Amino acid sequence: MRCPYCGSTEDRVLESRQNTTGNVIRRRRECAACGSRFTSYEKTEEKPLMIQKKSGELQEFNLEKLKKGILTATRKRRIPQSVIDNMIAETEDAAEYAGRKTRVISSSLLGDLILEKLKAVDAVAYIRYASVYKNFDDLKRFITEIKQMDKK
Ligand SMILES: [Zn+2]
User: Fold this and answer.
1) Residue 144 is part of which domain span?
2) What is the pLDDT of residue 144?
């Protein structure tokens, strides 16, 4: 996004909010060059992104739900709000990108996208989220992942 004050394209997202019909995303941004704050409105695809649950049931992608999941996992972890906001925005972008053709992604893919972001930021938040989201079948893989993280 280009800063309307100085023209720089480097910015960070302070806050993302979906409108009530879910097709416009309002983002508060801060320019990394001059520090000005501005708001962008991005129209998402006309067709909402659907999340397919393991049962096969389709549910409309819900930004608030994504936010809640990430906030719960990162609670009291002293992670800067800007980092959390970026994680939320980036996960949403990744989900939109993954579903760009069919407008449907599986709930397990969405979970993996969130885990990927958490893993890069905070190991505890990652484990918290994984312990809620992963089912028993994934347990073996999960334990392997944690062991690999220990080695780093
Ligand atoms: Zn600027």
Assistant:
1) 47-151
2) 76
